[in-house]
């Protein structure tokens, strides 16, 4: 799991109250220091407050991740951090704009989601005549251990996940929107964002207590010599609930009792990450203990490519939360995934056999040459 830390600028309010900046990002953008704690942390990248949204894409290696999805891999990008640390800003940009039109129009504030969709459709439109792409989107939210569809327009209907050996966990009843162009996909983002907001009023919840997950499925069908090869890539964008919810529970026992105000999914995610980063192979990893860890099962220690963007506030007032985020992110960095292409097994077999036939033909030609035939 690749981990990038993004430090947001001090807000006007924080500056007005005279709060100090406590996080220093090193010039090489590989490490940062929490000033008062005198502690240094190393990550795949550390992004200072002046990093622009387009720079975030590049420094997080998002285009490469998307290209992998286009080639049949599963990829997950998730934003972690306390409420107000910049998770939604990083993933979606400014919500007000997204809600209205899908994105800010390619301007400076667009987040990773809309920029990624633009990247995906640019690649799809460039594809040669032998390759057909199909792009489909889903958008869900997990709140209080219930899954809601952000695209169905029914904000109160709870959905259930299902398990299949081939697919892992998935949600069968999700609305899946076929997107034939970038505008279609941006409309999905706008609708999901709008419903997330509406839902938060109706159910007396807010986005700092819910996780949202948008998944873009990219199927490709390539024809060669009359045989079609299909690959099923996907990329999920996960905006996690505020990590300060974790603090209120030190033990799992007390957590279960207080499910009303503590986020079980976020707690279990922390536990799963801690266990995976310990690297003990025989440990039973409790993926099945929360909705979020079920749906992220493949992204953590599985066959996905994963990127965590740990968001931090630089303010002296939030130092404790920032340190806790950095420790969490450090653990996530120790997780090793084994990415693999998702392919139709029959087609994969054909492809392998075909490859073998090619090799045998070559070998045969060489042998025949040696025999002077
Ligand atoms: P979270 O989703 O983690 O609760 P938000 O993304 O909503 O936090 O960010 C809180 C506020 O800070 C928002 O008003 C957002 O626009 C602003 N903000 C966050 N990150 C940045 C940034 N890198 N540059 C400028 N403003 C930011
Ligand atoms: Mg948010």
From TrEMBL:
Pfam families assigned to the protein according to its UniProt record, in alphabetical order: Kinesin
A Gene Ontology term for the protein's cellular component: microtubule
ATP-binding found in the keyword field: yes
GO process annotations (BP): microtubule-based movement; mitotic spindle organization; spindle elongation
Keywords (A to Z) from UniProt: ATP-binding, Microtubule, Motor protein, Nucleotide-binding
Gene3D superfamilies attached to this UniProt entry: Kinesin motor domain (3.40.850.10)
CDD domains xrefs: KISc (cd00106)
Keyword Manganese: no
InterPro entries for this protein: Kinesin-like_fam, Kinesin_motor_CS, Kinesin_motor_dom, Kinesin_motor_dom_sf, P-loop_NTPase
PANTHER family, per the entry: CHROMOSOME-ASSOCIATED KINESIN KIF4A-RELATED (PTHR47969), KINESIN-LIKE PROTEIN (PTHR47969:SF29)
Official protein name in the record: Kinesin-like protein
